[in-house]
Amino acid sequence: DAGVTQSPTHLIKTRGQHVTLRCSPISGHKSVSWYQQVLGQGPQFIFQYYEKEERGRGNFPDRFSARQFPNYSSELNVNALLLGDSALYLCASSSSFGTAYEQYFGPGTRLTVT
Amino acid sequence: RKEVEQDPGPFNVPEGATVAFNCTYSNSASQSFFWYRQDCRKEPKLLMSVYSSGNEDGRFTAQLNRASQYISLLIRDSKLSDSATYLCVVREGGYNKLIFGAGTRLAVHP
Questions:
Q1: I need a surface site. Which of A30, A77, A81, B37 has the fewest CB within 10 A?
Q2: A1 falls in which pLDDT band (50, 70, 90)?
Q3: Which residues 44-63 of B have a C-beta within 8 angstroms of A?
Q4: Among A15, A22, A38, residue whose Cα is nearest residue A76
């Protein structure tokens, strides 16, 4: 079975632009979480979605938004990009909502803002 | 104070060495604890969960001390393939939010 997939793998954007990152969870998984990993740091939680509803939000500005589609895939949108948004964006899927379910990470999208 | 703190390393050890990583967490209400491994420019992968009674998986042993809010990982008989960053992770809240430490780099040399 395919694991979590993310697209694109790499992306270069200019300050002020907008970006959309995409994630497809493992087949049968209904929950998707997004994390940002800046170089030299551990991943930081951005959002969790379950059954198309936002179930958790980390300490990120409103420039960050996300949604989940009926097929459980998800998009992360970032507006008005800043240099500090340069990071690896990781998507993780789990079969359901709640603390009992392991999260499986995708390979990430590496975003560079110039 | 950071929610999860780890020694950043790097730890440079020869093959066959035993190495220990430590981690502390700030929220006493944290529910679950893990060690993840992350290879360079790759995604994190679950290495093992950590239980209060301590648990072992081959050469890896994890310990949790809830009273001290302290987590450890011991790697025995280090292999070259163990070279990676080891992330201490805490799960809290009613939903599946993982809080990561900054990671400890391990480099095993011949």
A1: A77
A2: low
A3: 44-46
A4: A22
